Amino acid sequence: MLKKFLVVVAAMAMPSLALAQPANPAPAPVTKEVAAPVVATPAAAAPAAAEAAAAPAAAAAPKSMDGSLPGYTPMRPDYANSVGMPKAKEVDFQEQFSDNGQYAKWINNAILLPIITIISMFVLGLLLWVIVRFNRRANPVPSKTTHNTFIEVVWTLVPVLILLGIAYPSLDLLAKQFKPAPADAVTIKATGYQWYWGYTYPDHGGFEVVSNMLKEQGDVAKGERFRTENDGPKLMAADNRMVVPVGVPIRIQTTAADVIHAFAVPSLWFKLDAVPGRLNEKSLTITKPGVYFGQCSELCGARHAFMPIVVEALPPEKFAAWVKAQGGTMPGAEKPAPAAAPAVAAPAAAAGTAPTTDTAAAPAAAPTK
Questions:
Q1: Residue 148 and residue 150: Cα distance in Å, rounded?
Q2: Closest Cα to residue 29, out of 233, 206, 203, 220?
Q3: CA atoms of 287 and 247, how far apart (whole Å)
Q4: What would the pLDDT profile of 4-33 be if each residue is shown by its tens digit?
Q5: Does the pTM of the predicted model rise above 0.85?
Q6: Hey, how many other C-beta atoms are within 10 angstroms of the C-beta on 368?
Q7: 275: burial class by Cβ within 10 Å (0-12, 13-18, 19+)?
Q8: Rounded-to-integer distance, Cα 30 and Cα 121, Å
Q9: 128: which residues sit within 8 A by CB, 6+ positions away?
Q10: Contact 98, 283 (CB under 8 A)
């Protein structure tokens, strides 16, 4: 009796514990410090070096309260048409915005639902006919027939044909879902943490965007960012979105840092497990610009319900502007050379200063083991 009482008390306390438990902070990248060789900086080059050092600090300035960046303003979700989000009193799948999603929804509505409806009505009709025709009052002397070849052939062949009719489009959809992404696809690595997401862009400089659920205005301290209608519905909005180009193949790779998560966006017909120590991969092409909402779909701990997924699909030129605002680069674009290097080298050459020998610089430049 005491054990049952303790179990009931623990179950009642779980919701409050889940809400009280804070999310883990974003992991800081592990870097090795490398000692640079000492180079004398002329007085004339000092202002240029100071400006070069101030540039990264300016780029790392905090975002505005709505998540805007230079050249990028977050897209407002399409509430009027419920694009990328659940609709009130909806019984069907969400409207699909990927080729595989549209094909899967067609299979459900044009093949599976009619077959299910016809079979259910046929079985119901048989039951009613048996109840009326073969009850004791209507049929006092039961038949002793034990075999009927025609019926046995029919109830064997018809289910086989039905299964074949379902199998072909189902296997076709399965093959399309796991078709490898083309070589020029945009690669995005989605990492699940307890309890938030990290999106890494290896094709665009390797930067990572950390995405946490936005809280309501009454749940944050003064001056902190909170959810507004421009961010998305309650419990589904995130401070940083996974921004992707529309109409371009995307290679989404999923993994996890702690426990199993699942990256799932219903309106894009996309769901892929994120497993620690494993890299899963799947291709996706979004057909329309918009904001698409999903959630972690694998039970991953106390705050499992509070790690939403927000995918923002932008035209390619706007996606390029977002990448630039994040400090990344588009494939094929070269990074600008540092401005401070020529300013330091020129005075040294003019003064005829001998370069530092390799024997003195090499030990200082070697990485620490």
A1: 6
A2: 206
A3: 5
A4: 666 665 666 555 544 444 444 444 444 444
A5: no
A6: 7
A7: middle
A8: 63
A9: none
A10: no
